[in-house]
Amino acid sequence: MDNDNMDAEFKKAHHFIRTYLGKDQIYTDEEIQEQEKANRFDYKFIPDLDFREYLEHVSLENHRSNDFMAAYPVIVKDDQHFLHFKNQQHPFSVLWEYQNLLYQVNFNINKCSQPFDHFFEKNYFHLTGVMDSKNSSILILPYFNEIRYYKEFSVFCASMFPDNEEDSDNFIKKLFYFDTKGRFIKEEKGHIPNRIPGIAFNEKENVFTEISLQFAEKIHSHTVYIIEQERRFSLVNHQNEFLIDGFYEKIFVNDTLDSALSQSENNICLHFFADKTKVKITEGQMADQKNSWVRFFDGHKKWGILNHHGIETTPEYDYLDWTYDSTKLKAFKGDFSWTFSDEFNENISPRIIGDNEDLYTSAGLELGKGKWGIINLKSEIIVPFEYEWIEELNPELYLANKNGKVYKFDLYNEYSDWKRPEEYPDEHAVAGGEWYLLDLHGNIVKEISLKEVKQLYDSESTKDLDEFKENCGVLAYKF
């Protein structure tokens, strides 16, 4: 019985039974709470360093210099990692990479010298820290049950279990923020953030910004967010203060984060954050953004480019598309309309599907008569408007087609969701005609066969191939 009397759970059960029977309580609420507190694991982990001493030792307030780095040495023996601390070696496992050789690491708490209660022992078998692989050191010591990294905000948020029953019942944890140098910034209570942390850290100025934003549609920086309301959008800062007036159909924020373009109905306006002024630029519809450039078309369906001062490229083209080089555009002059094509459905689609019984195409549409060329943002012609199709082979060469036909369609798998509604197909094919390699000045390097075209793509190994493919213009199937 003496051993049971030392257990807080026994005391609470005894307390409940005597209350139910209408008898006086033997143990006070204060006594039970003290017993629970005494049995709770206090996070005094392997290094035998008091947690509060640790936070003080690495706090941002005490280490404003950019030269500081919270580094606790790591050694590797036979592929096993050890934290070397106070002449002792503590093994740990390396998990996934957060970013830039910063890894989550786990320490087995069953090797702790400090006591922890039976609930903790049964349910939690490790604590988490952060390792800096570049410097072979532990950046954040393993006092925590979870650590998340927020790339856009340059902070880690580490969580601990609550130290009182009320917070535990509400799933509220103790949260601790660290920067990428392992410096402790701030402590608070709450739920570990999903997309937006409670603070953001400015690494250049060694200052942090507190964030009180509950939800954002898109994050531009730790001080600029797009929010959504009934399918319309506005801009706020980290304190939920509006940077522009009202809500709009579309918003594109300048890369310098000091202005934005908005569209409402057919009006395109420029907003300046500093004085909250609003200037109408033109009438039309905005399409999308690349860097600080925005594609748009006017009331005559002519395409141009906006910057965050006004019109950059006059809308005089029947279509514009981006290229890998953000200063150049793929432009079309002619009938940019798409009509149903029996030729595609009967002859091209079966060649795309091949022997794959699970693959399907939508109905094909053929592009109207016109020519493609390449221009710069000043509308100067780089590649003359002489081609039925142009795309980028790599950052140094264009691939162009004369006298071929251009189709667009959608491609999907029987077991996948339809990618887009059929009226917005996003795949292209070019059939027939002659193929040419062009340099970046529009000069013909040589005429090549379709077989050579396919060999070029198969052998292409651009240095930054993934980045190129992500940022280049539209590519097409070729027949």
Brief summary of the model shown:
This is WG containing repeat-containing protein. This protein has nine helices and 38 strands.
What is the gyration radius calculated from CA atoms? 31 Å
What is the residue-averaged pLDDT? 80
Counting structural domains, the number is: 3
Helix content: 10-25%
Count of helices? 9
Low-confidence stretches: 1-6, 38-45, 110-124, 418-424
Classify the beta-strand content into a percent band.
35-45%
Q: How are the strands of the biggest sheet laid out side by side?
A: 1-2-3-4-5-6
Question: Structural class from helices and strands?
Answer: alpha+beta
Protein model, in words:
The chain has 479 residues and is α+β, with helices and mostly antiparallel strands. The chain folds into 3 domains: 2-39, no CATH class; 51-210, no CATH class; 318-478, no CATH class. The protein has 9 helices and 38 strands. The strands form 10 sheets. Strands 1-2-3-4-5-6 form a 6-stranded antiparallel β-barrel. It has a 5-stranded mixed sheet with strand order 26-28-33-35-38, covered by helices on one side. A hairpin with a 2-residue loop joins strand 14 and strand 15. Helix 2 (8-20) runs antiparallel to helix 3 (29-39). The longest helix is centred in the first third of the chain and has 13 residues, at 8-20. The protein is elongated, with a radius of gyration of 31 Å. The termini are far apart. Residues 1-6, 38-45, 110-124 and 418-424 have low confidence and may be disordered. It comes from Chryseobacterium oranimense. This is WG containing repeat-containing protein.
